[in-house]
Amino acid sequence: MNLVTNHHLGTVILFKCEKQQLKRLSARKGKIALLTTEPPDKHDRLLAGAFLFERRRREVKKCLLVGMVLTLFISLAGVTGCVEARPPAEEAAPAEEETVCIDTSLRSLAQVHNMQVGAAVQAGLLATNPRYAETLRCEFSMLVPENAMKFEHVHPGRDRYDFSTADAIVDFAEANGMQVRGHTLVWHSQLPDWLTEGNWTRDELIKILQEHIMTVVGHYQGRIVAWDVVNEAVDDGGSLRDTFWLQGIGEDYIKLAFCWAHEADPEALLFYNDYGGEGLEPKSDTIYELIQSLLDEGVPIHGVGLQMHLSLDSYPKAQDVATNLNRLSVLGLEAHITEMDVRIQQPVTEEKLNEQAYVYRDILQVCLSAQNCKAFVLWGVTDRYSWIPLFFPGYQAALIFDENCDPKPAYYALTDVLAGH
Ligand code: GLA
Fold first, then answer.
1. What distance in angstroms lies between residue 227's CA and the mean position of ligand 1's atoms?
2. What are the extents of the domains in the chain?
3. Which of 73, 161, 207, 359 has the greatest CB tally within 10 Å of its CB?
């Protein structure tokens, strides 16, 4: 108990310390703005950004150190004041140490905006890597199983379901007051061989998909805030993607999937999720028209997921994303940024990391300004376990925590936006 209370006191000191430094930092930012009479070009922005992010990083580090030393000192000395004295060692319960989460974490800053910040997670790492688990617990308020709810994992045999891995993620989320996005019910990828190699009639496939959706959504009824019901049904040219499901069932598979998911959990928000349709491009027009026609038919669909897998080589204009979010809002739809990462071509330089920070910052700013954008989810936590190097050889460093789980400029850019700097 005392350990917790003492940590608390140290944390309070730490928070105060950080807030003062944040104030000083914003004052400096103000000066930079005053000195710049011309609108800064990209290079100036990057230089100023490098300066600010580096200062902020050093200050937060210094602050953390001060807080930790004080916490340790207070704990060791058994300082009382508002806190109880520490009981003799033999009476102390075996303490399970938990990292104290800072007041300026993404999670606590986002709470003020009524927005969820999330990350895709791997259950294996949750169980074996304490730093990974603690980063999730402190920094994020929403989790998405990176793979554990996909068809091949959760439904490995015609009559066999395996929820063990996905359950571990949902349990962790609930134990830490986090929401869960379910990902994903109908996709053309990561399907099990028993399914893709079978010779099914249309009716059989309809039955299989219905049973799959009813079972998986039913298993988590009341525990998943939003489901990615259909993933990536539109191809890069802006037509319906020619998938296993389209070939086997026809285009009705989309509306059927939403109807079954709604039947299995009427409270869950149901999303269409895709990449490459974030801004204003042919693909986002197709997605918009598809969803609009589903809504006209009365299909229960509540939101659109903008995956946001970006690259420093090409990313959508923030203004276009804002316009897209707005037209979805006019349809009465929620939007989530569902899988954001920003890959960098090697070599990764400080300048590229700062430019990456600006991309993250702009997208979060757009989401924050849109009244229907309620969640900002990253596709992973640390660069160490990101899918990027494997799928995009020559690219890396796409996330906001580095290989050691230390925050990158992009992390500070996000906390700055949420703190209103
Ligand atoms: C897509 C899927 C995700 C994931 C990523 C890459 O965006 O929706 O589930 O597989 O690709 O890892």
1. 14
2. 1-79, 97-420
3. 359
Catalytic choice (139, 146, 232, 334): 232
Query: Is the CB–ligand 1 distance for residue 122 below 6 Å?
Result: no
Evaluate: CB of 392 within 6 angstroms of ligand 1.
no
- Ligand 1 closest atom vs CA 307: 7
Q: Is the CB of 339 under 6 A from ligand 1?
A: yes
Please check whether residue 192 is in contact with residue 147, taking contact to mean a CB–CB distance below 8 angstroms. Answer: no
pLDDT at 182: 99
Rounded Cα distance between 403 and 115, Å, is 27
Per-residue pLDDT of 96-114, as tens digits, reads 567 789 889 999 999 999 9
What's the pLDDT at 103?
87
Does the C-beta of 415 come closer than 6 Å to ligand 1? no
Decide: helix, strand or coil at residue 344. strand
User: Is 174 a catalytic site residue?
Assistant: no
The atom of ligand 1 lying closest to the CA of 232 is 8
| Residue 277 contacts residue 338 (beta carbons within 8 Å) | no
Topology given in CATH for the domain delimited by 97-420: TIM Barrel (3.20.20)
Residue nearest to atom 6 of ligand 1 (CA): 387
Mutate to test the pocket of ligand 1, among 147, 150, 153, 189 (most ligand atoms within 8 A of CB): 189
Residues in the chain with pLDDT < 50? Answer: 1-55, 58-60, 63-95
Active site residue 232: yes
Indicate the Cα dihedral angle 119, 120, 123, 124, nearest 10°.
-100
Residue 99's pLDDT is 74
The strand ranges marked E within 275-417 are 303-306, 309-311, 334-345, 373-378, 395-396
How much is the pLDDT for 94?
Answer: 40
* pLDDT tens, position by position, 357-411: 999 999 999 999 999 999 999 999 999 999 999 999 999 999 999 999 999 999 9
pTM score over 0.70? yes
Please tell me the predicted confidence (pLDDT) of residue 5: 28
Report the alpha-carbon distance of residue 38 to residue 25 in Å, rounded. Answer: 22
Q: In this predicted structure, what is the pLDDT of residue 166?
A: 98
How far is 371 from 149, CA to CA, in rounded Å? 29
